Amino acid sequence: MIKILIVEDDRVIVKNLSEVLRNEGFEADCAFGYNSALEKIETGSYDLMLLDVLLPDGNGFSLCKRIKSVTDCPVIFLTASADEFSVVTGLDIGADDYIEKPYRPRELISRIKSVLRRTGKSQSTVSLGNVRVDMDKAIVSKNGRDVFLSALEYRLFLVFLNNPGVTLSRNKLLSEIWDIAGDFVNDNTLTVYIKRLRDKIEDDAQNPKIILTVRGLGYKLGEQK
Questions:
Q1: Domains in the chain, start-ordered, CATH in brackets?
Q2: In the chain, how many H helices and how many E strands?
Q3: How many CB atoms lie within 10 A of CB 42?
Q4: What is the CA radius of gyration of the chain?
Q5: Cβ atoms 152, 194 nearer than 8 A
Q6: Confidence bin at 225 (pLDDT 50/70/90)
Q7: How confident is the model at residue 201 (pLDDT cuts 50, 70, 90)?
Q8: pLDDT tens digit string along 71-84?
Q9: Which residue, 81, 124, 134, 147, could crosslink 53 as a Cys pair with Cβ 3.0–4.6 Å?
Q10: 96 — phi, psi (to 5°)?
Q11: Which of 20, 57, 22, 23 is nearest to 39 (CA)?
């Protein structure tokens, strides 16, 4: 799974941006300043970083230089500092793209995917038995044939794919898919969508191997292959 580090001190932006990324099948982590970002880089591995220029304890340009000196991780500046000098400076020091705030979510995701492809970091296909999910193209197939999922069914599936091995409570699932497709989602509706998803992707929906029930706790994703 693609892991993205958000370096941004505005917690509201981080929360909203993390949700956008997770909705698209990415794993999102965050650092709220220069020093915390360096700690994350030293202890973790990331496929891409979204970086603000103005940080409370340092400068995004110098952080980008540091990142590029020790890793091959792509960097996209996501910042309100979008004057010509800032853009040129960011690109000249090695940034892979430069996006002005406020960003448009669809454009941001498209440009993230473009950078990942260009830098060879794209790992968008997940296999679960005879089911394959191309998260870059939002295509699900089973035995080589496309499986049509509604927007909410696909979002529900992504929640499981984003949390491999994690038991997800019904409340957690509801919070992740709430009103994603303009539909009212309650506990009963969740049961219906899990059944529909299983009917489409499982070989035997009565004995699921992909979306597993954890009695008394919730659901979790079966083992990926």
A1: 3-118 (3.40.50.2300), 150-221 (1.10.10.10)
A2: 8, 13
A3: 8
A4: 19
A5: no
A6: low
A7: very high
A8: 889 999 998 888 88
A9: 81
A10: -90, -15
A11: 57
Span between the terminal Cα atoms of the chain, in Å: 13
pLDDT of residue 215 exceeding 80: yes
Give the angle 98-63-81 at the CA atoms, nearest 5°.
40
Residue with tokens 């919070």: 175
| DSSP SS3 for 84 | helix
Name the strands in the sheet holding 145-147, side by side, starting at the edge strand that comes first in the sequence: 125-128, 131-134, 139-142, 145-147
The dihedral built from the CA positions of residue 170, 175, 176 and 177, taken in this order, carries a sign that is positive
Q: E strands along the chain, which residues?
A: 3-7, 27-31, 48-51, 54-55, 58-59, 75-79, 97-100, 125-128, 131-134, 139-142, 145-147, 211-214, 218-221
Residue 101 tokens, joined: 């705030």
CA distance linking residue 27 with residue 126, whole number of Å: 14
What mean pLDDT value characterizes the chain? 88
Cβ–Cβ contacts within 10 Å for residue 50, how many? 26
Cβ-based burial of 219 (10 A; exposed 0-12, middle 13-18, buried ≥19): buried
Q: How far apart are alpha carbons 187 and 175 in whole angstroms?
A: 11
**How many whole angstroms separate alpha carbon 213 and alpha carbon 225?**
19
